[in-house]
Structure formats: C-alpha cells, structure tokens
Amino acid sequence: MARPIPFSAVVAQVIPAAMPLRPFLPLLLACLLAACAQEPVLDRQAVLDEVLANYRANLVGMRPLAAPPAEGETAPVGAAMPALTGLPAQAAQLLGQPPATVRRLLGEPRLRRREGDAEIWLYQSPFCHLDVMFYGEPGGPAGSRAAPAGLRVTYATARAAGAERRTEAACLQELANQARRS
Q: What's the pTM value of the predicted model, to 2 decimals?
C-alpha cells in the first residue's frame, strides 16, 4: 500500500517554486479583480441629449428679459418674468427674480460676493453647484456696502459637481432640500 505524502511536504515543495511570484501577487490579484469588474453601459446619445437640453436652457436664460415688478409697482406692458411660486425646474427660471425669492426657495448661499453693482451667490451641495448673479440699478452711496436698488437675477446656471450626473431640476431640488434641513 502506498504511503500518503504529508501536506507539509507538498507545501515545502510548492512554496519555493512560488517565491519569485510573491512580490507580484498583489498586482496579479488587482488585475484579476479589475478583469471581473463590469463597466456600466452608458447610453452616449442620452447623455448628449441631456447635456444639450441643459445647455439650451442656459442659453434661454441669457436672453434679456424684463424683471418682474417690485412690490408695490405695477407690471409694465410687455413680457415680464413671472414671480416664482414653486421650485423651478431649470436655473434659467430664476432670471428676473429678486434676492428674497431666491432665498425663500434655496435658503442662504454658501458664498456671496459683491462686484460693483452686481452680487454673485454660490450654492453648493455634495453633487451640484448653482451660480446666481444679481444686478441692479446703482442705488446706494458710492463705496457703501448697501445693496444696489432693484437687485434681480440676471444669470443663473446649475452644474454637476464630481463624477455623478445631475440635471438642473435634480440640482435645484437637492439645494432646496438642503436648505430645508438647515
């Protein structure tokens, strides 16, 4: 009857043969794991359509529009931006709105910067950013920190931050939810 070979003898014979590979084992394992990973399938046309839709919405926002009337004023004849009652689906819908409306919808901005008669607000969440520029007629004394009179949104754009895709509507909703939690 044949005598079985002890396991320790087998290991003693295999390990010296594997010694030259030992420094490369982590690299070999990483390559094997990478080969097993599935790449997500992106519908390139859908991504392009989404980017173009957001770009077109921003272009619409760059057209000069009349601001909605301030409280106590009557609406001028012509196309004025309607006052927002709910959260907009696109950043361009913020155009013509006063700072109070933007604050009511999105809370306080993370960053606020004054440049002459303009004021720039930045809203941030983990996955998106919103830039809002207000501009008004000169109203405060020169060099004062007083806000210009009749401040209105003249530019607004939402963009994804990081690697995740976000529509403008999702970004604005995320910022509004963040403001409610604060």
A: 0.55
